[in-house]
């Protein structure tokens, strides 16, 4: 059994920490906010981000990063992408130089637009890198509902090590070698879930939803290919799997944001009502910048950006998508 540091005490970090404890591991769960961690220690529950799931004695909440990683066998970072760079910088300062870093964050580095493995390489030097991604709502994992994810790593043995930590009869962790594709899938699907939420919120039907998911997948593949991903990765859990989950179920915060925008709420109102991280709001900027840089067509992502940041109404954005000239289906 291993000692694991989970860095990020939000809903996903807490759900993965609970899973690791159920798998028999000893877990330290780090949060940046000492008051929140004090509440976790007192309530033995993460009331702010994952209520109604008792924390077992093998899960130790802490706000001390040095103490969190002391003597652990593995480290998993699960902070939202906007805090990822700062957290990694703090982490590498207290982590042995040969210790691998894995993450379950879904997004790009907002400042540089780079994928997170590039940032970790730059800040953390040569070491094992791994990512856990795929269709997985925190609450369902905490409830022990059957879930399957992808674990990709820079080295097959590290992917196998990480997958073994998480794998159980309720949480199947499939190994993968496409670090880039798995990250692009997990990040970009959030933008497409906002688009699908908008369409559903405007009252469009099942045909429209399916069209957006499928044409969204084409955009995601285009982006992945220019960044060096393998095309087939997008047919797996971290691609189509997560895209379908997030675009079709109202547990998704990104989808709910789209629904709220279509119903006339402002971005600020919608975010306040959701009260948690909505990664697509940050990710859409990186995605559109990358699309422009690599000269690839990502019309759905561009319309999401226009709705979020350029004052375009959901109705106008939808109309602009529909008015595009016909084209061949496959690139
Ligand atoms: N919630 C899910 O179901 C789920 C599932 C899969 C992946 N993810 C991904 O996991 C990542 C984390 O999301 P979440 O759902 O746990 O977020 P959350 O909204 O539940 O929690 C917010 C998190 O942000 C952290 N935070 C806030 N300010 C911070 C700061 N200044 N420095 C460091 N951390 C700070 C909080 O401690 C908390 O961990 C995201 O990339 C998300 O896409 C979430
Ligand atoms: O609630 P969302 O939209 O952030 O999605 C959560 C997970 O990424 C689903 O796999």
Describe this structure in words.
By secondary structure, this protein is of the alpha/beta class. The protein folds into 2 domains: 3-177, 3-Layer(aba) Sandwich (Rossmann fold); 187-323, N-(1-d-carboxylethyl)-l-norvaline Dehydrogenase, domain 2, CATH 1.10.1040. It contains 15 helices and 8 strands. It has helices at 11-22, 34-43, 65-69, 84-94, 116-124, 138-142, 156-166, 179-201, 206-227, 237-248, 253-262, 267-274, 279-293, 299-309, 314-322, and strands at residues 3-7, 26-30, 59-62, 74-77, 101-103, 129-133, 147-153, 171-176. Strands 3-2-1-4-5-6-7-8 form an 8-stranded mixed beta sheet, sandwiched between helices. Helix 9 (206-227) packs antiparallel against helix 10. The longest helix has 23 residues, at 179-201. It is globular. SN-glycerol-3-phosphate is lined by residues 106, 135-137, 190, 193, 242, 245-246, 252-254, 279. Residues 106, 135-137, 190, 193, 242, 245-246, 252-254, 279 line the site of SN-glycerol-3-phosphate. NADPH binds at residues 11-12, 32, 106, 138, 253, 279. Sn-glycerol 3-phosphate binds at residues 106, 134, 136, 189, 242, 252-254.
């Amino acid at each position: 059994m291993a000692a694991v540091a989970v860095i990020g005490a939000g809903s996903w970090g807490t759900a993965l920490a609970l899973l690791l404890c159920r798998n028999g591991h000893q877990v330290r769960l780090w949060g940046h906010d000492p008051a929140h961690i004090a509440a976790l220690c007192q309530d033995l529950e993460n009331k702010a981000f994952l209520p109604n799931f008792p924390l077992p004695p093998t899960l130790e909440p802490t706000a001390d990063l040095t103490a969190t990683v002391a003597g652990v066998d593995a480290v998993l970072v699960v902070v939202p992408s906007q805090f990822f760079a700062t957290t990694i910088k703090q982490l590498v300062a207290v982590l042995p130089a040969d210790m691998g870093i894995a993450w379950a964050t879904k997004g790009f580095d907002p400042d540089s637009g780079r994928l997170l493995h590039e940032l970790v390489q730059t800040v953390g030097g040569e070491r094992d890198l791994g990512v856990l991604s795929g269709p997985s709502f925190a609450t369902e994992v905490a409830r022990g509902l059957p879930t399957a994810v992808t674990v990709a790593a820079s080295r097959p043995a590290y992917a196998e090590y990480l997958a073994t930590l998480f794998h159980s009869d309720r949480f199947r962790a499939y190994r993968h070698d496409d670090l880039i594709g798995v990250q692009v899938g997990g990040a970009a699907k959030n933008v497409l879930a906002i688009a699908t939420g908008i369409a559903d919120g405007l009252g469009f039907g099942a045909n429209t939803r399916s069209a957006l998911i499928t044409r969204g997948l084409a955009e995601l593949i285009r982006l992945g290919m220019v960044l060096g991903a393998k095309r087939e990765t997008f047919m797996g859990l971290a691609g189509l799997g997560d895209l379908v989950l997030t675009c079709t179920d109202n547990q998704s915060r990104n989808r709910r944001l789209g629904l709220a925008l279509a119903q006339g709420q402002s971005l600020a109102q919608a975010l306040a009502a959701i009260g948690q991280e909505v990664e697509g709001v940050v990710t859409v900027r990186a995605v559109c910048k990358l699309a422009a840089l690599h000269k690839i067509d990502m019309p759905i992502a561009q319309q999401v950006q226009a709705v979020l940041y350029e004052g375009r109404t959901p109705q106008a954005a939808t109309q602009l998508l529909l008015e595009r000239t016909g084209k061949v289906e496959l690139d």
